[in-house]
Amino acid sequence: MSDRLEVTVALPGQPLRRYTTLLSQEEIEATVLQARNSITFPRLRISLRNFLVPSQKIYNWLIRPMETELADSGVQTLVFVLDGAIRNIPMSSLYDGEKYLVQKYSIAVAPGLQLIDAKPLQRGKIRVLTAGLSEARQGFSSLPGVKFELDSIGSEVFTEKLLDRSFTASNFKTKVQSSSFPIIHLATHGQFSSQANDTFILTWDDRINAKDLDSLLRADTRIGPVELLVLSACQTAAGDNRATLGLTGVAVRAGARSTVASLWSVSDEATALLMTRFYEELAHSQANQGNEVTKAEALRRAEQAVLQDERFSHPYFWSAFVLVGNWL
Length: 328
Fold this sequence. Notes:
By secondary structure, the chain is α/β, with parallel strands linked by helices. It contains ten helices and twelve strands. The protein has helices at 25-40, 44-62, 67-73, 146-156, 169-178, 210-217, 243-254, 268-287, 295-307, 315-318; strands at 5-9, 17-21, 77-80, 106-109, 127-132, 158-163, 183-192, 200-202, 207-209, 228-236, 258-262, 321-325. Strands 5, 6, 7, 8, 9, 10, 11 and 12 form an eight-stranded mixed sheet that branches. It has a two-stranded antiparallel ribbon with strand order 1-2. It has a two-stranded parallel sheet with strand order 3-4. The longest helix has 20 residues, at 268-287.
């Protein structure tokens, strides 16, 4: 609101709670912008405090009033339906003065809970279609870590890989529509915006725009639905408060149950480490029936693994990826 922040909380088996913080929209947006700028352009030793101060402010607005009730409820996953500029920062990076939120909860983002098909990932051997560009193409820079990322994922789960010259728009379309891969992992340049014309992913020879991606992913054109779409190296459009919804819209309309994507471009090495751990957690979950972790929990564990690496402890490296949609 122009003069306040309203938060509505739904806890299991309890009536809705609402709390209000009197703040101007300008102050909220300025704080979020400070957090966003200091997390996406880190000069590590200098800027961490510059991020933690606004991050803790936002934590105090959103989480602090319900902190005790959340802890007492025993919930393990927080699902956020966000509005305005707050969409531009990852909830996982909110700081309580001692810990980040991801160190306490699994986290997901939803465009609206009524849009979420809350079904768990189908159990069985994970099969992933991976596609990526490591070489510079069409004016975009090279992504030298992509080959290592896709190879590392392939060491954890069964994959079919389209890399560089084999990752053409035609090859990708054929694979998506003729195979029953429940997970599609794209490690390539791309952008998601609330404007369809500004949403695309890059292939070796072309760009796949939002409309084409929507058509490709539709369940009625495939052997089975897309359970999870992972967009590595893509990013949401800078300054677009509704960019995350643009990303979500492609997945939801097309029937993809979940999307994991980054809010900004992160380092190749940190991304490869995070993604390898993410699939390792999913694969371990599949192999140990009765001990499955959710997609949100797999991402939480992967982010914590990167966070604990001294080289990548700054939230710039581990918090960029958000899970949008079905968190199970």
